[in-house]
């Protein structure tokens, strides 16, 4: 790990004043995300307020080959924030301006530090919303950088589909804009989607242009419980295969329901459960509900419990968004370890069956949850980060899950990103295409200063 | 232009037998697309039948720094096929196997030479379809390479959204697979979308994995005519802004209707027209029709003329797909020149108004058509390719259209690609991001043998 030279320290202080700090508390806060990964502290933290400042910071660090790590809301689950080679954590949370909203074109531009909840609070009166919703209240820059998704992806897609353009600071400090405001374009390489999911390893995203959607005329949410998780999964698969435009379809196993009830003060039946949300016109929603009810009933699901009052619905989804924290809070001083495989929907049933078998003798608290409409599911493990045996045990289960997913055409990470946690699986999943990723990385960031040690071996 | 050495000629003959040719007729056929761009002949044409053969051809050419140009159906509109530095045209049309269709996962894998019509004919009995439909019966590899779209994009997206994975031969002959079959993934750089739209300049796409859709329960098509194109555009904008999930919404000005009637033996009213298609359940379609009717009426549209019998509907869309050929056929020995701007929908009205003013004194036959739901529209000019004055005149109009589109946040090409035709506008549209595209191009293809002279200056 390289330490910062006196000249660099002085230059960064001169640029940012007290927005540049080497305090241990700040460095500790910036050296990890929310999951089990060990922290690795940056040498300093720089709070940027503009794209131009990010560019200046990157230029200064580049001049001494010092790593830079973008920090948004700190909610990463795969070790993206570990400063494995030291360097400067560039905190973008103060870049929180919503620059432009166009109701006519259903798009907006925000600074990278704006969180998804902040954007939706701002939009509420306009009748618009932004659907992508990882559990955490993540920053939109961070969500773009990890190609995040969440509960609405089955209907609205992920960050891949919903980012129209970006402002990016490159490793040499150059500022570029990618994409544009047209809904489609064939004008050259798709740099937008190259940076979406690049986890700060090619550049730092400082502004994001996003698609927005009209709040549906009718929104209806329901819970349905099942004797067995397999019945729930079978229902979900049929719903997807029929092309029903369901907005949310979330699996919560009974372990999760128990944790969520305790954490969020709810009273859901402790059974394997699908939570649905339907968006559309009154007639459209009625039609979807009818189709889904029939499928669920055929698979042994019990009656729908409706949560249609907005506050009731919000409580349900807020509880679902807090699922990770709910599982972790079951155990004092635990950290969460979340698996994140995504498979073709036709293979979801056998994958979840295999996962359940893997969990049978697991010694730490676990819960299964998933965006089953996409074939994406998680096991959250509440681990003691200081217990090496537990970490080995969970790592082995996680590895088996990932290998099984890859063997059926799936992916090691549906929405959390590679970070440090999935590097070992990248070649298994992508073969020699990983070499091409490395070629691109070396070309764009020849000194290797952008979030080193992430994505690529 | 480098000529092929005797050793290379011999090696390619040994590999391919009579599937390798230097005949002038074949070279002429492979040195241009369907538009006005001047032909530039490759030195030879190689008909590949497998990915491994493409790899061998590329390796042999790479060993002597000879350019390679992928050729699918030959329907490019922006000069992608011009062998500006000679080299070998690799014809993929014999790679026409549909490798795999999964009705359960709504996806398929096809070889690059499969055309969109071939795929849909194959799928018909399965109840599935692939929606992306440029006018021409293009190959799916070519459509991926140009990031094509068509009339259904407003509902189903473009090739960007519908390609799940690719097999690609890199400039050194290495074969890689990008993406996968999971609906979403955060596992590393999005190489799939880097190749989608790269126009053969980074590698040759030999296989494509695509999303499929269930054929809607109800499909309903209608024409609506307007006194003035502005009323039609105003209607289209409102329909998009209301988020009505319309499947197709095509603008055809009266010039186009006249040309299409003559070319396809139809009898549409010669007025500015919107052609609609509605997909959904019976109730859903009825609801969409009601909303759209009200908007259209408010904007002075006349009654819908329905085309609901499948053969009638097919005739309508077939005529629409042949629009380019229809305009060109109005004039003996003409070639088509198609503009292709795409703008934020809120700016579509003023852009089309400006375009109409530009066309007022144009000396060649023209027609305006567009996928107005996306903000994408074309003027097709029927030009005499040997008349330099005409080419200058049309180039000037095209340039003004492009500059206006870029000035309002739009793009120089919505779906046809850059090829040779839009290179001059790339920096105006993307600024310094073009430098990053060049960095990537040089890293992936250091010798510059992949379709040289396209996309980048």
UniProtKB/TrEMBL annotation, chains A, B:
Cofactor needs: FAD
Gene3D superfamilies: 3.30.465.10, 3.30.70.2740, Vanillyl-alcohol Oxidase, Chain A, domain 4 (1.10.45.10)
Cross-referenced InterPro entries: FAD-bd_oxidored_4_C, FAD-bd_PCMH, FAD-bd_PCMH-like_sf, FAD-bd_PCMH_sub2, FAD-linked_Oxase-like_C, Oxid_FAD_bind_N, Vanillyl_alc_oxidase_C-sub2
EC class (word): oxidoreductase
FAD-binding PCMH-type domain residues: 38-215
The EC number(s) this enzyme carries: 1.1.2.4
Source organism superkingdom: Bacteria
Keywords: FAD, Flavoprotein, Oxidoreductase, Transit peptide
Gene source species: Agrobacterium cavarae
SUPFAM superfamilies, A to Z: FAD-binding/transporter-associated domain-like (SSF56176), FAD-linked oxidases, C-terminal domain (SSF55103)
Transmembrane segments: none
Family: Belongs to the FAD-binding oxidoreductase/transferase type 4 family.
Protein name: D-lactate dehydrogenase (cytochrome)
């Amino acid at each position: 790990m390289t330490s910062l030279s006196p000249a660099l320290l002085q230059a960064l202080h001169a640029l940012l004043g007290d927005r540049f700090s080497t305090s241990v508390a700040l460095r500790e806060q910036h050296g990890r995300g929310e999951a089990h990964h060990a922290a690795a502290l940056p040498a300093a933290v720089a709070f940027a307020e503009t794209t131009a400042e990010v560019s200046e910071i990157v230029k200064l660090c580049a001049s001494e080959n010092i790593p830079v790590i973008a920090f948004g809301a700190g909610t990463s689950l795969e070790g993206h924030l570990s400063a494995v080679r030291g360097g400067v954590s560039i905190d973008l949370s103060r870049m929180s301006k919503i620059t432009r909203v166009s109701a006519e074109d259903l798009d907006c531009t925000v600074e990278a530090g704006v969180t998804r909840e902040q954007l939706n609070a701002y939009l509420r009166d306009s009748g618009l919303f932004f659907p992508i919703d990882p559990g955490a209240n993540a920053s939109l820059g961070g969500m773009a950088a990890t190609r995040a998704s969440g509960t609405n992806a089955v209907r609205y897609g992920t960050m891949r589909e919903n980012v129209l353009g970006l402002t990016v600071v490159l490793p040499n400090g150059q500022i570029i804009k990618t994409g544009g405001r047209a809904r489609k374009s064939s004008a050259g390489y798709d740099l937008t989607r190259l940076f979406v999911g690049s986890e700060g390893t090619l550049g730092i995203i400082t502004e994001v242009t996003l698609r927005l959607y009209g709040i549906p005329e009718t929104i209806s949410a329901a819970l349905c419980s099942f004797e067995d998780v397999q019945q729930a999964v079978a229902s979900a698969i049929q719903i997807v295969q029929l092309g029903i435009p369901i907005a949310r379809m979330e699996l919560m196993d009974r372990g999760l329901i128990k944790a969520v009830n305790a954490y969020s003060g709810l009273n859901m039946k402790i059974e394997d459960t699908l939570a649905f949300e339907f968006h559309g016109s009154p007639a459209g929603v009625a039609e979807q509900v009818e189709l889904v009810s029939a499928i669920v009933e055929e698979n042994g699901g019990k009656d729908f419990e409706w949560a249609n009052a907005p506050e009731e619905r919000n409580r349900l989804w807020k509880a679902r968004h807090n699922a990770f924290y709910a599982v972790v809070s079951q155990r004092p001083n635990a950290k969460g370890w979340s698996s994140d495989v995504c498979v073709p929907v036709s293979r979801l049933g056998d994958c979840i069956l295999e996962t359940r078998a893997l969990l049978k003798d697991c010694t730490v608290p676990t819960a299964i949850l998933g965006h089953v409409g996409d074939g994406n599911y998680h096991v959250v493990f509440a681990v003691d980060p200081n217990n090496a045996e537990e970490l080995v045990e969970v790592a082995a289960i996680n590895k088996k899950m990932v290998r099984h997913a890859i063997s059926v055409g799936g992916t090691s990470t549906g929405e959390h990103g590679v970070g440090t946690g999935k590097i070992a699986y990248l070649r298994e999943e992508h073969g020699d295409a990983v070499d091409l990723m490395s070629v691109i990385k070396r070309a764009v960031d020849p000194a290797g200063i952008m979030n080193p040690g992430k994505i690529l071996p």
